[in-house]
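Table 4 source record.
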Amino acid sequence: MTRCQFWHRGLSDVYLVETERHPYILRVSHHHWRSKSQINFELELLDFLHQRQLSVAYPLRTNEGLLSVDIPAPEGWRYAALFPYAPGTVAVGDLNVTQSHLLGTTVAQIHQAAQAFRCESHRPPLTLEYLLDDSFAAIAPFLTHRPPDLKFLHEAIGQIKSQLYDFPTEPPYWGICWGDPHSGNAHFTHTGELTLFDFDQCGYGWRIFDIAKFWQVSLATGLSRKVREAFLNGYQTLAPLTDTELAALQPLTQTAHIWHWAINLHHARVYDYSRLDDSYFNYRLQQLKRLKSYDWQLF
């Protein structure tokens, strides 16, 4: 090893490890975020997908054949995993139509391949109870002094759940989801090759939720409608979606927004509480209102 550089603090601590031959990414979990079983689920999924020649950054095994190493930190157990550095870079200026189409196709390949995935480790399934009810429980205490906003969020969640009542929960509608597909979690080489990474939010869920999560991030960052539709078209070249699934795209995009809000809030409470002022909540409430509007996609 020639250098180890702290690279990024997110839901895990990420280090860039450089050697004379190759760069690597060392990811160390936070004690408060994931259990060992939940981390093992993700790592075993990535190993499974890599063995099936899918374009994901996969964990390297230790000399003992393990996918992670236990670290007894002062605050509790943390877990480290080493990955080859994904070749290429995040898309400059964000995704173009060609890149977005390829990303959509690759997500469909993952959904199809992961139908055969079996694992003794566990992750919370991406149900409405987990995505919405648990998220509301995290957000609500910060809105108790704003009763109209708390009521709006509660009613928005109730409306989403009524729209998705009895949504199919069997294959191919239901299976392994990436949970966080967007341009920041993919590297492209100059020749157009793609590698996906950051499956921290993966779990069993609706395949259309991965499209909704891409929509949520894309709308928040201002990606054009052509780029969003290229992702959907790429996905459907391999896995056509039903009208029922497509009709669920708007409420599930709202669901993705609320879930992302709760995850971001959880992180800010631990590492940057100063961010949690009125502007933080105003911005996210305004985004949710826009996603609920009739013209939510008219740009």
